[in-house]
Automatic annotation (TrEMBL):
Family the UniProt entry places it in: Belongs to the class-III pyridoxal-phosphate-dependent aminotransferase family.
Entry annotated with the keyword Transferase: yes
Keywords, in A-Z order: Aminotransferase, Pyridoxal phosphate, Transferase
Keyword Transferase on entry: yes
Species, as recorded: Methylopila capsulata
Annotated GO MF terms: pyridoxal phosphate binding; transaminase activity
PROSITE patterns: AA_TRANSFER_CLASS_3
Annotated PANTHER family: ALANINE--GLYOXYLATE AMINOTRANSFERASE 2-LIKE, PTHR45688
InterPro entries: Aminotrans_3 (IPR005814), Aminotrans_3_PPA_site (IPR049704), PyrdxlP-dep_Trfase (IPR015424), PyrdxlP-dep_Trfase_major (IPR015421), PyrdxlP-dep_Trfase_small (IPR015422)
Cofactor: pyridoxal 5'-phosphate
Name recorded for this polypeptide: 4-aminobutyrate aminotransferase-like enzyme
Coiled-coil annotated residue ranges, if any: none
Length: 450
């Protein structure tokens, strides 16, 4: 499953590739045995949303409340949430809820006025970054953050070309969709974008990824677009979770800088302690990005995102274009994000991700010894992937079966990867070993029952 390093299409095998939103999606056109109340709610949603409605599972879930690592359905059933990384410190976290309630009852306004909470949060956030990454701009979403990062890189380099991985997903603005091949399988990439294979083994992962990048850079230069930067999610989540060996990104970052480009680390998925090694996913690779982007988990469900970069890059961008985000870093969002950061730091959730994630990965690897369908279990901290295969080939049908079988066992999970055959495990950071046991035992039972 390798395509040329300077691939100009979002997928060399579009029939096999899975659009990210189509993974485990409910298909309203297929006959189903939905309960009358659920069927009525689905119909109501479709009347309003039309083709933009995307639901999970063969039988969509009607959730009414949540707490910690649990979601509750309308009929009272509770589900262990192994999918949602947005409530990073747990659903309805008391500290976050209290901070939001207090702030929304006090002040919520745009950022052209002075108010303490956004300054306090900015200072606390920047303190988690390596020296030199000392300026932040707040947004409302990861999509906005990545859009802004692309603009910063273009302003800094005077070039338009970007390199991403073949199944990358970085958001849904026009500019960011251009650098998100997983959103447009089989379609030609934008002329200024090149997609390279994700860094999976075996062999010299670091050297191969750097060589593919260098070939893509050369193609961008030859085409006249030039090279502005490398944009990667440092856990390669949409590609199917690529974490090891730690440090493999370093040669690619060196190649990026030799070519005059910027390294943009998309930390929406791996950031805020999820990989268990440090606060940020890029730190596992002993590299320092030029620009870092953040989003979803930052506010535990309250919309906030951010871009952290060096002063010189921010100055160059600000000199070339005015930038203002009405709700980016508003008082309520900042209060939520500050509470999230406090929870991560004070409850030792980075260490918890390392401990529980390591324990769970070991159990999943052991499970693979008993079930041949498991090609590999991999990942870091509380971002893990379980790849399913059949006769040595990707098996998305097994992943789809498992997702719905686990739903029947009251566990929620999703899929990722080029073929949609990788279980994506990214629970709230408060996940415990007992919860990991529930998942592994349910997965064991589901595979044994197939």
């Amino acid at each position: 499953m390798t395509t040329p390093a300077n691939s100009r299409t979002a997928d060399a095998a579009p029939a096999a590739s899975r659009q990210i939103l189509a993974l485990n999606a409910f298909d309203a056109a297929r006959p189903s045995d939905l309960p009358p109340e659920t069927a009525a709610l689905v119909a109501r949603r479709q009347r309003s949303f039309g083709p933009t409605s995307v639901l999970f599972y063969d039988r969509p879930l009607h959730v009414v409340s949540a707490d910690g690592v649990w979601l509750q359905e309308a009929d009272g059933k509770r589900y262990l949430d192994v999918y949602n990384n947005v409530p990073s410190v747990g659903h309805c976290n008391p500290r976050v809820a209290a901070a939001v309630a207090k702030q929304v009852a006090t002040l919520n306004i745009h950022t052209r006025y002075l108010y303490d909470v956004v300054h306090t949060y900015a200072e606390r956030l920047l303190a988690t970054f390596p020296e030199g990454l000392d300026k932040v701009a707040f947004t409302c979403t990861g999509s906005e953050s990545n859009d802004l990062a692309l603009r910063i890189a273009t302003a800094a380099t005077g070039k338009r070309g970007f390199v991403v991985t073949e199944m990358a997903y970085h958001g849904n603005t026009t500019a960011v969709t251009d650098v998100s091949p997983s959103s447009r399988p089989g379609q030609p990439l934008a002329p200024h974008v090149r997609a390279i294979p994700a860094p999976f083994g075996p062999g010299d992962v670091a050297g191969r990824f750097a060589a593919d990048l260098e070939a893509a850079i050369a193609d961008l230069e030859a085409s006249g677009h030039g090279f502005a930067g490398l944009l990667v999610d440092t856990i390669f989540s949409s590609d199917g979770v690529a974490a090891d060996p730690a440090g493999f990104l370093a040669p690619a970052v060196e190649a990026t800088r030799r070519a005059g480009g910027l390294f943009i680390a998309d930390e929406v998925q791996p950031g805020f302690g999820r990989t268990g090694a440090a606060m940020w996913g890029f730190q596992r690779h002993s590299v320092t990005p030029d620009v870092v982007t953040m989003g979803k988990p930052m506010g535990n469900g309250i919309p906030i995102g951010g871009v952290v970069a060096r002063l010189d890059l921010m100055q160059r961008f600000a000199a070339s274009v005015g930038y203002f985000n009405t709700f980016g870093g508003n008082p309520v969002a900042s209060a939520a994000a500050l509470a999230v950061l406090q929870e991560i730091e004070e409850r030792g959730l980075v260490a918890n991700a390392a401990d529980v994630g390591g324990y769970m990965l070991a159990r999943l690897k052991a499970l693979g010894q008993r079930h041949g369908e498991i090609g590999e279990a991999r990942g870091a901290g509380l971002y893990l992937g379980v790849e399913f295969v059949a006769d040595g080939a990707p098996a998305p049908e097994i992943a789809s079966y498992v997702i719905n079988a686990l739903r029947g066992r009251r566990i929620l999970i999703g899929a990722a990867g080029r073929y949609g055959n990788v279980l994506k495990i990214r629970p709230p950071l408060i996940f415990e070993r007992a919860h990991a046991d529930m998942l592994v035992e349910a997965l064991d039972d589901a595979l044994a029952s197939r």
